[in-house]
Amino acid sequence: MASKTIFFTAIIALLLHFYLPHAVSSRPLIPGNSPFQFIKPLQDSKKGDNKEGIQQLKQYLHRYGYLNSTQYSPSAEVDADLFDEHMERAIRIYLINFNLNSTGVLDGETVATMMKPRCGMADIIDDNKIGFRTKATDPEGYMDGLGGHILGLEHSSNPGAIMFPTMQNGTVKGLGPDDIAGIRAMYKLP
């Protein structure tokens, strides 16, 4: 049993050694400073709106798995800033995933959630896209979440779980019941 633990620890250490430099931004997180500030002016946007910045929001939704390649093309110039039916559907799915009221509108709660520092992994895996960019406010919690991904866990929709995709500034998380249940189920542990 000890040899298995050492083996898995060594594998995780090697993976972290090679992937961590790409996974964590080198800039420190400044409270109130989000890499997703572009979302704030889009608050209250809804289907049919044409606002500057919606194209960036489409990139965000594509990066994190809510818009697939047929619904979003970075090279599309026509209607780039149009909040279309694909955006509305992507926002609804995002809201469901984060246990928010699924209206399809970018209300204040949705914008606040989207602006939180988050894991760089896609929430919904689409076309095998995986990104590595985050600003960890809880490095140990971030490492636990990365370890969960290495072990095969996907994101949880439980905000208390270490595998929840966003991180609240100043919050420190440990493994919760949802995380432990996921690991037990994946590896058929009692």
Automatic annotation (TrEMBL):
Pfam assignment, any one: PG_binding_1
A GO BP annotation: proteolysis
Keyword Membrane annotated: no
MF-aspect GO terms: metalloendopeptidase activity; zinc ion binding
Domain of life, source organism: Eukaryota
Entry keyword Metal-binding: yes
GO CC terms of this entry: extracellular matrix
Signal peptide span: 1-26
Entry-linked Gene3D superfamilies: Collagenase (Catalytic Domain), PGBD-like superfamily/PGBD
Residue ranges annotated for the Peptidoglycan binding-like domain, each copy included: 51-114
Keywords in alphabetical order: Hydrolase, Metal-binding, Metalloprotease, Protease, Signal, Zinc
Domain Peptidase M10 metallopeptidase: 148-187
Database matches in InterPro entries: MetalloPept_cat_dom_sf, Pept_M10_metallopeptidase, Peptidoglycan-bd-like, PGBD-like_sf, PGBDSf
Family recorded in the similarity comment: Belongs to the peptidase M10A family. Matrix metalloproteinases (MMPs) subfamily.
Name of protein: Peptidoglycan binding-like domain-containing protein
Organism annotation: Turnera subulata
Lineage: Eukaryota, Viridiplantae, Streptophyta, Embryophyta, Tracheophyta
